[in-house]
Request: fold
Amino acid sequence: MSMGVAECMSSELLRDLSPEEREDVERILRAAEGRAEQKALEAARQSATSLVRHKELAMPGATLSFEGLAYSAALPDGSKKPILESCSGHFEPGHVVAIMGPSGCGKTTMLDMLAMKKTSSYQGEVRVNGHLRDPHTFRRIAAYVPQEDRMPEHWRVREAIEFNARLKQQAGGSGHDVRELVDALLSEFGLAEVAGTYIGGAHVRGISGGQRRRVSLARGVAARAPILFCDEPTSGLSATDAELCVRALQAITRKFNVLTVAVIHQPRVEVVDLFDTLVLLTSSPGRLTYFGPMAEAPAYFEARGLRVPSHANPADFYMDAVTPGSSSDVSDNLVAAYRQVLAPGVDAAAKAASMAEGLTVSRMLQAMSHEPEGSARTLHPEPCVSERAAPWRTQLAVVLCRKARITARNPMAGALTMLIPCLMGTLLGSVFQGIASQMFLQQVPFFFILVTGSCFQSMGFMAMLIDERTVMKYETSEALYGEGVVALSNFLIDVPVALVGASAQILIAFSFSGYSSDLLQTIFCWTLLVFFVYDSLFACVAACAPDAQLAQLVATPMLTIFMLFNGFVITRGGAPPWFHWVFELSPNFHTMQSLVTNVASTEGPEAEVIVDTFGY
Reply:
């Protein structure tokens, strides 16, 4: 071989290759031997490096087996309705599994039980590499992509994938490793050209729906999880986008040695051929009708007297056969045939897999780490596995960086927190310009409007908080970070921004009023205090309410009641005795009382009489 080829062959990149892979590299390099062009040799080097890179990104295989998996829903009368009858099975790494069936067959229920996303109780056991699934560590090796794409609209594509890659990076990894993984995923999922584009959504223009779905799938793979669960990854997509998504999943599954389990609803014929294994369910209740290789399904159905018509979509044919009530319904016959023909072999394979113990979760994570052999950790009998891959400091840095970027890019956040308060402060100051020189009774409405404006300022953020909560619930369920990290990040970004906006409104209004600077501290601090009280109250409502509409319905009456019982609209003396307790709870009353009494002390005896009239 030439000197350049020899240099490639002696590269450290090739030392971990198997003999078969080394032969492939030799073939690639020798194809360039004898050519004088430097470009040919460089292309060969890149091809060899690419093969080695894919090997380095490959993960240790994880098998998934389950026995006696069943679920019944509790009805209001206390009885139980079976959703999925007892079933067993076994999946191998490097395979793409399709779970199919009509509505109500329990396919999503099965996926959620396998992915440990089912919160209600169910029967059966699930094993990974023959070991019982551990709730504490399972999320370190499994990723779940929900049916709905849950990502901030002002996020960029590369940032979204890099977010998961950094928070799931194993010990010993570097920033170069993260960038290399992100670049590989952008290329495999066809997202390289839109890497710098916003994710987008209902209010922000961004990438297409198909591309957004591929970003969600890429984020799942970026978690470096040997097992990937996808809930209807092609739903809502065009036939072309659906095929692109599944092809990308297949390529990633092969190259990274991932086990991909996906719920699929009536895929096109080109997509059907991309799956290795088919799990076919029927409904009422959910029962298995087929469990085996996708390529062998036509022969199995033909042996049951159900031949797939030429040029027909096999998936549509299978669905018609297992949908109760359809003209082609033979679901009961297929269930009986499965239990007689396939079930014994499937159950035996699941039992054998449960007894063949392979790598534990800790050992798989160790194999994916960059720690050298013989280190103290690798020599430990069974390394301790934390619930999350990234340390707390890294979680905070990554989440805080995303929060800062999104806040800076969101024009609505800037308008709500900065521009509108400044405009309201200018409007209020213009209306009450020089109010300090007026009679004291005419000054009281100024304080009422100033306090009320501070109360309303945070109400518009509830919808934004609810959207962020939805994203947080998904990401924390994937063990990317802890809830406390989000709370601290929001505090470090939202509170200073809101503080600047509220302070600007108060100071602008005060500058127009003509009051002495001696009163600035009292007016500023008390008005800012009531702002923080309502900011916290609305944040609490947004955290508990299921949606923005209900949050508004709950927050509005509370604000209205406190505004009424502030001593100015309804005085303590004029209110019925059984409502006096409301004044003690109203933040508006205590703020108004402090402002009015402090200003009245500088206005003379006439102002003191007015203070007594209001009951302050």
The first strand starts at residue 64 and ends at 74. Residues 1-6, 43-53, 372-379 have pLDDT under 50 and may be disordered. The CA atoms of residues 119 and 285 lie 20 Å apart. The first helix runs from residue 3 to 9.
